[in-house]
Amino acid sequence: MRYQLAGFEVDTINRLVTKADHLISIEPQVFNLLVFFCEHPQQPIELKNLSKRFYHEKKAPPSLIADMAKLHYLLEEDPSNPSLLVSIGYQRYQLMQHPFEKASVGLNMNEPITTPSPKKPTQTTIPTYQTRPKAKRKLFAKAMVVMVLIVGGAFVLPWQNYLQPEQGYVFAKQSEPLISLSGTSFSPKFSLASSSFVFLHKSPEKNNAQVFLGYTDNTPAKVLTNDTYFYMDAVFANNQIIATRFNNLQDRDCEIVNISLIGEPPSIIRPCAKQAMTKLEYANDTHTLFYKYREHAEQPYGIFALSLSDGKNTRITESSSSKVSYGDYLFNYNQQSGELAVMEHLVDGSSLLKIVNPQQQTQTSYQRFQSPSGMSWLSNQQIIVSEDTGLIMFDLSVQEKSLIDNNTDVSQLTTTNRQNTVAFVEDQYQVNIHQYEINEQQLAAHHAVTHSKAMNYKPVFANTTSSILFLAKNSQHESLYIKNNQGLVFDIGLPEPIKFYSNFVWSPDDSKILASINGKLFVKALSQKHWQQLYTQFNTIHHVTFLNKTDFIFSSKQAGSWQLWQGTSNQQAPFQLTVNGGYSSQYDDNNNHLYFTKYHIDGLYMLDLERNVEQKVDATFPLNLWDKWQIRNENLYVQKNRSIEKIALASLAIIDLYDLSGVVANHFSVSRNEHLLVVDQIENSTSNIWLADVILQ
What we know:
The protein is built from 3 helices and 57 strands.
């Protein structure tokens, strides 16, 4: 049966919900509730009956209340003023409209669904996908399976389609991980001459990763380093092992070092880019090390070739666009062809695949990928890429993509010393938001605000209540949620799928959310259902903060430098506030001062908005803490390592130090009354190294 209701079409056979040819994703229980109301229109339905039927409980559980809220948000244009699914008494609801009924046609799951390539999302529109006649090569759309974190809500899914090869591949993962130590193991690199490989491992009791030597024949792994440095990558270089490391996670001074196999301290080869996660590849034929580097902070990253024979250091890649981007960040070397496969991160958030021949000094651009996390040469013409949609095979000769596996937990794909075998890291993280009471200069009792087996992170307290805005993500989907004072959770959606983001903030009266997503600026009035993009002429927007109900500050990179701009909700002409740099900012509404950091140098700065005078207030404030600070009332809160400092703005003296020892947290937020603290706390994380054979069927 198919029900047509208020523009929605509900297919009970295939369990699909669509609206105006958009496929809507919906949780199974929410779908059951929707169908039940369609089957019983204009009839009072008591929650206790729904509870018995679908939740097997006598009284309405919290999950039913949450599911009803999600159904409201799906159906109603204004959920705060419902007109379609209406409460008509205590725990009684009624569907006010009688849906139109028609027969449902089952899907032929053996027939591939053909769709055009997704269009780039614009301001508040979502691409519509329709079927079209078969091309010469079959097309198929990957089935998007949505695993809901805390609450589901309605999502519009941008299906991606890939050319299906005439002969398919099987990604045959081995039954046991290559390494399964307690903690996280990652970044494997294999020896060309033996059964050994080098990898990084971080034990649960340590904050820093160390270099290990592993073996494919089940010989126990060997620890190569045991110091206070934070190692980022390691690679075999003939009879040597070369690694990159930070001195610590605060300063992040980067070094390329030679690792001893006989227990001697590592020796420094040369510095690498400060604060940059630096990966390595090695060319056996030319004894050359490849790494990511840039000469100064305003320059895009490129791949450099360091000759380990004579020390010559040369940049071998160039940006593919005149527009400033992050640059090259992911690369893999083909020992047979002598070529590097390189991913360049572009301004729009996509990544461009480039093939670079260092010897011939050539660079060829190919197709774009979305959020690739690893890649490996399979042959001289085939590259496997892991991205958000799964594992993609890319054929250079015909420039075609094909989906070979829908495993989205695969990252750090790399070449091994066996033909048609790749190594990869499979990650699983459980992150939830925890709330602490701030009591007498210390953190008192705390409890989990969210309860998910996936990821809930980036919490932000509201300004007038203790409601919390946060991101929730699993392997298939990501969205913004609000948990209010009553404990109800609402999905407020996203303006477009996230490729990268900076931050999200509440307006002073909590009526709006301002967000920096994919280099664009979006605002959402919580009384409305849709997001609005502001100042579309800016495509490099980074950090955002509100000044008042209508005015806000955003940073943007224009003419090669990051500066702060003032904008308004009605999009009056933006005004540039800084000329000497500005990256992240916080507003002190008591004194009309804007505090901010800069992109390329340490320091905390203050701009008097009345006198338009800038001054440096703390020369030692690390630039890498750009998203680790917050102003509340007269105080500045800064997250450093495993603690949060409370600093008086007037004197910059540390008032309190809140200890977070034993807590792995990436972001924090302090409530307006400064009585509560929330952090996104990593409760469990595992990363194991696996092998897989890529088999041609």
